[in-house]
């Protein structure tokens, strides 16, 4: 593979890790092999095994994050690492390092903000049925709520532009970080692409940190929260419609009695109808106000995105950058 698509740009391979002693050395060496000019950063999430020592011995720059959760690790990586192109990959050895040069080339040639490595597997043990179904379900839900999305929303293999990384307001703490990245991309209508990448089973001795139900529930909660923040008019407008229909349903019998007798014998029903109508109006007004707030926040995100382009040291000669990389590796 020709890795020179990123020539003249500093490439950082950022690897979130937790107890990956069995696989991390291979991950570091594979990325060094296909991207010789890149720096591999391993961010350890308080592992209880020898992940840090093994990664350092393999040639990675190793740092530690004390707050548990992949989202916390990603937030720290995005904050700390300074580069032109970022390759984020899990440290479990399941992703194909050989696909990275092509992903980098596509990011550069098409001037994209993110290239997503869509998992393609031929081993049933690589991608469990429960995780596959959960990914499909969540991807379908996000598509319904936010529009066009990705085939594999929860993949851990992505290539980012500097502009994306430095303008991404990461808030997630755990594995829902991929969902947050996806929604952020859709919200700002950023330029993205997908590329199929081989996905293999974990190496012997490596165990998955995913919990199908717990992490799926956390991702679902994040989607609902993001819906309230990013699509408030749709959410509160739906509530307003439900309350309005309920109000009409309660009011019709009262109106029928009044037309027939000139009296309102169902006064409590009338009160409920008026209360529901009031809730409908309040919900609609809340949605309108929140929608205006959201638009202002989206404008700020866009401005931060536009301002996060060029690095402060972008014009430093490449020889100087190489010296910096050597110092970083110790």
Summarize the structure.
The protein is α/β, with parallel strands linked by helices and 330 residues long.
Gross geometry: elongated
Query: How much β-strand is present in the residues?
Result: 5-15%
- The Rg value, from CA coordinates, equals 25 Å
State the distance separating the first and last CA atoms.
28 Å
Query: What's the CATH H-level homologous superfamily of the largest domain?
Result: Spore Coat Polysaccharide Biosynthesis Protein SpsA, Chain A
**How would you sum up the major sheet?**
7 strands, mixed
CATH topology (fold) name of the largest domain: Spore Coat Polysaccharide Biosynthesis Protein SpsA, Chain A
Q: Numbering strands along the chain, what is their spatial order in the largest sheet?
A: 3-2-1-4-6-5-7
Helical residue percent band: 40-55%
Sketch the topology as an H/E string, one letter per element: EHEHEHEHEHEHHEHHHH
Broad structural category: alpha/beta
CATH architecture of the largest domain: Alpha-Beta Complex
Rounded average pLDDT: 84
- Count structural domains: 2
Q: Look at the structure and give the CATH class of the largest domain.
A: Alpha Beta
* Weakly predicted, low-confidence segments: 312-330
Per DSSP E runs of 2 or more residues, the count of β-strands stands at 7
Helix count equals: 11
